[in-house]
Amino acid sequence: MTTVIAVTGGKGGTGKTLLAINLAYILSRNDKTLLVDADVDNPCSKTFLKTSPNFRKIVKEFRPRINQDKCKLCGTCVQNCHEHALLLIPGKRVTLMPELCEGCGVCKIVCPFGAIEDSWIDSGYIEEYQVKENLDAIVGELKPTTKRTPVMILKTLKHAEERMNNYRYVVVDSPPGTGSGIYAVMRFSEKILAVTEPTRLGLTDLMKLYRLYKQVKPERKLLVVVNKSGIRGELREELEEMLSNLKVEWRKIPYDESAVKSYVEGSILVERFPDAPSAQAITRIAKEVLEGS
């Protein structure tokens, strides 16, 4: 049986990748583990993998090609393009502004003359890594010029789903925010670790994430992880009151220089500094995951 754990959170910089990488590393000591980096706009887990991919799949994305011989300049495609990526030059042609196009294909569907034809670009890729014994990774990444982040997240999760029966644990490093892609990650997972920090912005985004979580099936267990606990000016009492009112469990990862140094080095915290307070806290969280799986 495979246990899927999502490491998510609202704002960027709370420490999601730090927790996901170290959690996967600890779980791999117990059994075969897969790390999935679904932060497709900025998959920084590759910094910690220290190895080259052994597999790469190019992900294609639709771009309309306008057949000017069939086009009657009716403007239907332009009117229905919500990204305003198509421009009608009256009496001359319809032209595509590719930097605005999301590849949704609506223009092809609505064109009454069949003047929109298929063309495809490389929008990103999905890579597989063998990190160490019992630990593999799948990383999805969008090219900077493409825009369909939720679609790429879904494709990365689908790729992982096709392989995850070979693993006891799957740890998903999700992107920041509270959009549809994060909702998909939550639905994909059985356990959700919501990483926040004891700051005003951290509290605000945690509340947004909690509201999103409430829309997911309730049997998924939520554990809030308060990273950088002990930083100067932290809103400790306010955060703890909020979590108590929400009736959710939480754990703390104290702020220490070892965590910062490990992140800068691109090293695994629990391997490089196993006695650091932050590493010990992550180890305890991993133990809870093991005991509850």
Characterization of this structure:
With 293 residues, this protein is α/β, with parallel strands linked by helices. The protein has 11 helices and 11 strands. It has a 9-stranded mixed sheet, with helices on both faces. The chain has a two-stranded antiparallel ribbon with strand order 4-5. Strand 6 (116-132) and strand 7 form a beta hairpin. The longest helix is centred in the C-terminal third of the chain and has 16 residues, at 277-292. The radius of gyration is 22 Å and the shape is elongated. The chain starts with a strand and ends with a helix.
DSSP strand count: 11
% residues in beta strands: 25-35%
Helix content: 25-40%
Order of helices and strands: EHEHEHEEHEEHEHEHEHEHHH
- Main sheet? 9 strands, mixed
Mean pLDDT: 92
User: How would you classify the helix and strand content by structural class?
Assistant: alpha/beta
Evaluate the radius of gyration: 22 Å
Distance between the termini: 9 Å
Multimer state: single chain
**Biggest sheet, spatial arrangement of strands:** 3-6-7-2-8-1-9-10-11
Count up the helices. Answer: 11
Stretches with pLDDT under 50, minimum 5 residues: none
User: In one word, what is the shape?
Assistant: elongated
Secondary structure elements and pairings:
Elements: E1 3-8, H1 16-30, E2 33-37, H2 46-49, E3 55-66, H3 76-79, E4 86-89, E5 93-96, H4 106-110, E6 116-132, E7 135-142, H5 149-161, E8 169-173, H6 180-188, E9 191-196, H7 200-213, E10 221-229, H8 236-246, E11 249-254, H9 257-265, H10 269-272, H11 277-292
Parallel strand pairs: 1-8, 1-9, 2-7, 2-8, 9-10, 10-11
Antiparallel strand pairs: 3-6, 4-5, 6-7
Helix pairs in contact: 1-11, 5-6
